[in-house]
Amino acid sequence: MRRTLARVGIGAVATAAGIAPASADGPLTEYGPVPSIPLSGVCETHFDPGGSLWVEQYLSSQVARFDPAAGTFTEFNTPMPLSVPGGMALGPDGGMWMPEVTGNALLRVNTADGSMQEYRLPWLNALNTTALGLPLHLGLGLANDITAGPDGALWFTLGGLNAIGRFDPATHAFTEYPVPGEILGQVQSLFGIIKPGPGNTVAMDLPQQNAVVTLDVTTHAFTRYTMPTALSFPVGVWTAKDGSIWVSESLGMKLARITPATGAIKEFPLFSVGGLLSTVEDDLLHGSLGNPLPLPGPITQGSDGAMYFALSFPAAVGLGNQIGMLDPATGRTRVWQTPSSASYPCDVQSDRPGSIWIGELTSNKIARLPVG
What we know:
By secondary structure, this protein is mostly beta strands. 5% of the residues lie in helices and 47% in strands. The radius of gyration is 19 Å and the shape is globular.
C-alpha cells in the first residue's frame, strides 16, 4: 500500500530572544502519512547512497523507504515485533543501522532490498524465546541511538548499563564503556542521542545529569561539559563544521554552543513572552496548532551553516508543530510551523545539501524544509 500527500506550511521570523511576528508563507512540505498503522511513530530519517530516504517507525517496529521522486513509501517489518527501532545511522559498510530498544539488539538494514540482520547485545538479556512462531529477545540494555565513529565502528547509547556501547561491523565484537558518574541511564532509552563529536570523538547527551560528554574512540577518555542552566535537560547534540558542539537544552528553552578547546559554553535563550504570544497568534491565523513553548529537541546544521532544531520536544509536554533555526553568526532565529497540527517533530537531519528533513511522530508524516 502506497500513497502520498504534500502540503505547504507557514514560516515565522524570530528575534534572538524569542519568536517575533509572523512573516510570509514558508516552504515546508509534508509527505505522507506513512501507510502503516495510524500512529507508527515516525521519527528519524536518513538517506542511503542511492538517494532513497529511510524512515524509522518507532511504535510500529517498522522501517519505511521513501522515494523522493515518486513520493511513495515501502515498509519493512523488523524481525521481532515490538522491537522499537531507535535512531538510525548509515554505517561504514553502506547498511542502515539502528538499535532495537526493547529487542536488545542492533539491526542492519540492507538498503538494496530492505532485508535485515540482527546482532544481539551480549548484556542483560531478559528473555530469548519463540512464542507463536515469532522470535522474542527482550533485554534491559535500552540502546536507543547509534552513530558511525571515526574508527569505523558503530557507537550507541546503552542506558540500561549507564554506558556507551561499541560494535565492530567487521568482527561483530561488542564493547561497553561506562560513563563516569552516570545514574538513571534508563532516561537514555527515550532521550539518548549520540552523534559524531569533534576530532576523534563521539558526543552523547546526559539529560538526567544536565551534561554532554565526548568519548575519544582511541583512548576511551571521557570529557564532560555541564550546562550553565540547572535542570536544562539537554537532549539534542550536534558537532558543527567549525568543531563546536551544539546542544539543545529542552527544559531550559535554550541552545548552547560548546567550544571544546576551552570548555567555554555560550547559551542562546529561545523564550520571551512576546515571542510566545506571537507564536500562538501565528498558529491561530494559519491553522496549524501546537505547544507554543520553545522546547528544543534534536538539532543539526544545515548546508547554509545555520542550526536547525525540532520544537517542542519532551514527551511529557510535547505535541509541538514547529521547526526552529538559529544563525550562529548573527543570533537571528526563525520558526516554521508544520502543516499538521500537534505533529510532534521528532527528529531533523541534513544529509543532503539544500534541505532539512523532519520526522513527525504523531502525524505519521515526513517533511522537507529547503535551506539556502
